[in-house]
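Methods — Computational structure assignment.
A single polypeptide chain was analysed. Its primary sequence is given first, followed by the predicted tertiary structure written as structure tokens.
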Amino acid sequence: MSPFSWTSSWDRALTPVNSWISLQRSKGYLGPVTLDDLRVFIAVCEAGNLSAVARSLSCTQSAVSQHVRRLERETGIALIERRPRGVVPTAAGRTLYQAALGGIASLDAALRGLGELRDGHGGTVKITTGGVTVRHFMADAITAFRRRHPRVTLEFHSAHSARRCIDLLRGGQVDLAWITLGRPLPGVQLRAVIDLPWVLVVHASDPLAAREAILPADLAAIRYIAQPDNSASRQRLEDDCARHGMTFPAPVGVADWDTAVLLAELDIGHAVLPALPRLLDAPGSPARAIPIPFLTPITVGWATRQWHTLSPLATEFADLVTAELEGGPAPAALSGGRPYAGANGDHPYHLP
């Protein structure tokens, strides 16, 4: 197996484990339900359609209904509401869905680890992030990690948005997500690593290249190279500008971070970007990065389901990335970064 792999999709499957578990309430124990009951229930909540779940699992719709009915019978409460165009979880169903999602995802990660130990593999660390962020944030950490663990596979899942990264994380497909941090997210723990101020990337011949700082009036007249619509950093940027009473002109192009730098180097437009590590590291680059001090820096960092359930290898990789960006040695246990309080002063979100 190659020590690196990259994938952008996955297929959910029922675990071969079919252990019986018991749900408890105040007056005693309820009857047994299976892990597959919970897996099917999660799929029903996400798809909103029993027949769609049946097709994806290659079973009958009545079999899907049986899993849901058993959960309803054993919990003593309705979990889904049937509507003409499908089903939706009830309030009780949403509560069970959130609890089951985190539990099943953690179990899947544990079973993967046990399988790797059984088969003699070095192990796998699965990370999701945007396609261009690995070079800017993780290159040195990947090299250091590979020197320490040559038999371990680093598996990167490309995602087009922070929302997609979180979906992969919640679904148990990955161990870690590297994202632009915003508000706290249910079922996810966040750890801030680095704050990135904004800069304007311009060609060296542009009049703005001589500025020490960019003002709001300057941005109103630029040839704006926008980030993709689904980008969390673009949303944060344009919201921040709106609070300062300014809007960008119509974009002359839309591009990811690295392509936006290239377009600025070609003098096609101006790119408003976070001050990324390695942003202008190409020798002889004709571009310049000018600070935009009136804009609020964005925070990037790690997201995971539960820090204390991460494998030692995933913990070590997260620490290495954090230490490289903070300019210090990686600690023995995960302590790099800081618990994230959320945008606009939100309180930290921690699972119990």
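Note: The CA atoms of residues 16 and 109 lie 14 Å apart.
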